[in-house]
Amino acid sequence: MAIVKTDRHPDLPPPVSESGVIGWVRNNLFSSPLNIILTLVSIYVAWTAISGFVSYTIINANFAGETRDDCTGSGACWVFIKARFGQIMYGFYPAEERWRVDVGYVLGAIGLFGILSDWVKNKKWPAIYMFAIYPVICFFLFSGGYFGLPVVETSEWGGLFLTLVLASVSIFVALPLGIVLALGRRSEMPIVRMLCVGFIELIRGVPLITVLFMASVMLPLFLPEGVNFDKLVRALVGMSLFSAAYMAEVVRGGLQAIPKGQMEAAKSLGLGFWQAMGLIVLPQALKISIPSIVNTFIGLFKDTTLVLIIGLLDLLSIVKAGTTDKEWLGMATEGYIFVAMVFWVFCFGMSRYSIWLENKLHTGHKR
Amino acid sequence: MTTDVQGLGAGDSKLRDPRVRAIIYQILVIVLFVAFVAYVGSNTAENLEKRGIASGLGFLQQPSGFGIGIVLIMDYSSQTSTHFDVLLIGIINTLAVSISGIFLATIIGFIFGVLRLSKNWVVNKISAVYIEVVRNIPLLVQLLFWYFAVLGVLPLVKESLQIGDNFYVNNRGINFPSIIPSEGFWVIPVALILAIVIGVFISKWAKKRQDLTGQTFPVFWTTVGLIIVLPTIAALIMGLPYTIDYPNFGRFGIKGGWVLEPEFLALWIGLSVYTGAFIAEIVRSGINSVSHGQTEAANSLGIRAGLAMRLVVLPQALRVIVPPLTSQYLNLVKNSSLATAIGYADITAIFAGTSLNQTGQAIEVIGITMLFYLSISLIISMFMNWYNKRIALVER
Q: Do A213 and B352 count as a contact with CB atoms less than 8 A apart?
C-alpha cells in the first residue's frame, strides 16, 4: 500500500524574523553594519530637528497676548502673527470692506471645486464660470466703484490676498498666451516661428527679477505720455509674459506627444487647421500636459514673492515689513516660518493634486 | 467625369491656397510687429527726451560714486571707479556665487538623491522630508530666513564664537586665516594644475590598460596623492613662499584673514539647499530609470554593490540626469539675482539697481543685464550639451 498524501499541506507562515514588525525593522533598519550606523545617526538627526522645531514652535511658544511684552517663552512668539493677522491676510484693504475679498474666495472655491473635483462630471459649466464669469465678478468686487461699492485702490491690496491675485491673474493670462506661443513655435511659417522662438528664449534666458524690473521701469517709457498703469498692473504684465514663455514650452511638449496621424486624420475629414487644432489636437495635448501646467503654476505661485523687490506688499513683503517694525524687532524667525508654512501648504497641496491627477489620467494608457 | 479636389479648382480664389495664405499671414505679422516696434520706439524716444535722459553707452565711463559691500579680485573706490567697474564687479560677484552654488548644490543633490533611494526607512524619509519641504517654499523666503533669522542672530563681533584658534563666527561673517602669497608663490598653483593634468593622463592610460589587459589601477588615490604631494614639494622647494595671516581682534573688530560675508553665505547656502532638492529628485528619477535587471546582472557577475553603482548604474543614469541638471544650473544662475533682496552685490543689485537709479538709463542698463544672463545661459547649455553628447548612448 502506497502512502501518498492526497491533500495539500497548509502553507507555513513566513519565518518570524522575516515578517511583521520585527522582520520589517530588521530588513529596513538593521540589515548591515553600515545600515545600523546610518539608522542610528539619522534617528539622532531627525530627533534633534523635530524636537527642536516642536519645542520652538509649540511647546515653548507664546500664543496669548497683545504686545511684545507678552512673549516670555524661549520659543516662537506667535503673538506677532496674531497682532498682524488682518494685515497679513488682506494688506491695507479697509477692514469694513474685507468681506468682499472673502466673498471672492468663496465664489472662487466653488468654481475650483467644480473644475478640480471628481464629483462634477461635466466640466463645461464650471470652466465657463471660472474663466469667463468669475474674473469679471472679481474685478468689480475687489476694485469697487460700481454697484455702490466704494473704490479700493490697488495700492491698498496686500498680503495673501495680493499673492493670490498675482498668481491667478498671471496664470489666467499666461495659459492662452502660452498656447498661442506654442502653436507659433511649431508653425510652418518661418517669420511667425522666429518671433515666437525669440520671445520664448529671450524670456526664459533671463531671471524673473529683470523682467519685473523691465516691467516696472521701462513699461512707462514705452507708453505714450499720460497713459500710466499702476504698479500692480505693471507687475502683472511682467509675471504674465514670464509665465507665458514657460507655459509655451509645456504646451509644446504636449503638442509634440500627439502623433502626427491625429492631425492628418482630422485634415482628411476636411477640418481646417483651427478646427483640427481646437477639436482634436489641443484637447489631447492639454490633457497630457495638465500635470506640467500645475507644476508651472506652483513655480509661478512661489515666484510671486519676487514682487517684494519692486515694492508690492504681497504676503512675504508685508511680513518682512512687519519684522522691521520697531515694536516687533527680532521677530524675523517667526515671520518667515509663518510665511514658509503658508506657502508650503499651498504648494504641497498643489503638487499632491498634480500627482493624483497624473495617476488618474494615466489609467487610459495603462494595460 | 472628374471632380476637382478642393482648393485646386480653377474657379477658386487664390486665397484658398495654403501657401498664399501663409505668405499673407506672415506679411500681416511683420506689419503688426514693425508697427508695434515703431509705436513703442517713438513713445520711448519722446519720453526719454522729455525726461532729459541721454541715450547711448557713455554713462559707463562716468564715475559711479557709491560704495559696494563685497568686492572680489578688483579694486574699487566710490570716487574714481566708473559704472563700467560696477558692471564688472557685479558680473564677478554673480559668477562667484553661481559657481560655488552649482558646486555645493550638486553635492547636496547627489547625496540626498541617493539617500532618497536608500532601503533604510529612516534615511529615506529624512531625505523625502528635506525635498518636499524645500521644494515647496519660495526661494526668496528661504533666503530671507537664512539671512535674517539664522545669520542675523549670530553674536556681535565682540562676542564672536570661536572655533579652534583661528575661526571666528559673528554677525559680520565667518573669519578664517588667509594665505598671503610672496615671491615665487606661482609655483604652487602651477604644481596643482600639473598634478590634475597628470591625473587626467593617468586615468586615460589606466582605462586603456584595463581594456587591453584587464588589470585595474588605483587612479583616484594616485591622483589625490599627486594633488597633495606635488604642491607640497613645490612649496618646500621655494622655501614656503607665503605667509599666513591670522584673524585677530583689533580696535574696530577683527583684522586680517579672510571673511565670508553673511550676504554671500546666505545666498550661497540658500541657493544650494534649494537647488539641491531639485537635483536630488532628478538624480532619483535618473537612477530609477536604469532597469533593475542591470543591477541584477552586475550582481550575478559578482560585482560588489558600490562598484555596480559606479560602473553600471550611474553611467546609464547620467544620460537621463544631465539634461534636466542643465536646467537646474541655469535656474541657479538666474536665481542668484535674488541677491538684491539681501544686499549681496551681484549684477542685478548694483548694476540694474543702483547704477540704473543713478543714471536713469533704464534701457541700456536692463539690456546689458539681460544680455549677460542670456550669454551665461548659452555658455552653460553649450557646455552641458557637449558633455551630454559625450556621455550619450551610442547605438549601432
A: yes
Q: What is the rounded CA–CA span in Å between residue A314 and residue A326?
A: 20
Query: What is the predicted ipTM?
Result: 0.87
Residue with cell 499720460: A226
CB contact under 8 A, B366 and A218: yes
The answer to whether the CB atoms of B337 and A210 lie below 8 A apart is: yes
d(CA B227, CA B23): 64
**What average pLDDT does chain A have?**
87
Q: How many CA atoms lie within 13 A of B166 on its CB side?
A: 12
Give residue A11's region: left, alpha or beta (phi > 0; psi -120 to 50): beta
Sort out which chain A residues have CB atoms less than 8 A from B26's CB and list them: 189-192
Q: Which residues contact A153 (CB under 8 A, 6 or more apart)?
A: A230
Sequence-separated contacts (24+) of A55-59 with Cβ below 8 Å: A57/A337
Enter the C-alpha cell of residue B302: 559578482
d(CA B339, CA B327): 20
The three grid cell numbers given for residue B46, joined into one nine-digit string: 519722446
Residue B252 has pLDDT above 70, yes or no: no
- Nearest chain B CA: its distance from A222 CA (Å): 5
Q: CB distance from B370 to chain A under 8 Å? A: yes
Grid-cell match 504676503, residue found: A315
Q: Which of residues 298-337 of A touch B (CB under 8 A)?
A: 298, 302-306, 308-309, 316, 320, 323, 332-333, 336-337
The B161-163 sheet, strands edge to edge: B161-163, B167-170, B173-176, B258-260
Which DSSP string do the residues of B325-356 spell out, in sequence order?
Answer: HHHHHHHHHHHGGGHHHHT---IIIIIIIIIH
Dig out the grid coordinates for A70 from the structure: 507678552
* Interchain contact B118–A (C-beta under 8 A): yes
Cell of A239: 509675471
Among B residues 31-50, those touching chain A with beta carbons less than 8 Å apart: 33, 40, 43-44, 46-48, 50
pLDDT in tens, B270-326: 999 999 999 999 999 999 888 889 889 998 998 887 888 888 888 888 888 888 898
Of B200, B180, B178, B198, nearest to B190 by C-alpha is B198
Interchain proximity A336–B374, CB inside 8 Å:
no
Q: How far apart are CA B354 and CA B369, in angstroms?
A: 13
What pLDDT is attached to residue B1? 44
How far is A8 from chain B, CA to nearest CA, in Å?
34
Q: What is the pLDDT of residue A35?
A: 83
CB contact residues (below 8 A), chain B span 323-352, against chain A: 334-335, 337-338, 340-341, 348, 352
Task: Return the bridge partners of B260, or none.
Answer: B174
Which range among B253-257, B278-282, B335-339 shows the weakest confidence by mean pLDDT? B253-257
Q: Residue A298 in contact with residue A250, Cβ under 8 Å? A: no
Q: What is the dihedral of CA A32, A37, A43, A49, to 10 degrees?
A: -140
Does any CB of chain B come closer than 8 Å to the CB of residue A217?
Answer: yes
SS3 content of chain A, % helix, strand, coil (to 5): 75, 0, 25
- Determine the residue type at A308: L
Instruction: Give the C-alpha separation, A160 to A155, whole Å.
Output: 14
Q: CB B35: neighbour CB atoms within 10 A?
A: 10
| Sign for the pseudo-dihedral over CA of B364, B368, B371, B377 | negative
**Alpha carbon distance A320, B141 (integer Å):** 10
Residue with cell 531625505: B127
- In SS3 terms, A130-151 reads as HHHHHHHHHHHHHHCCCCCCCC
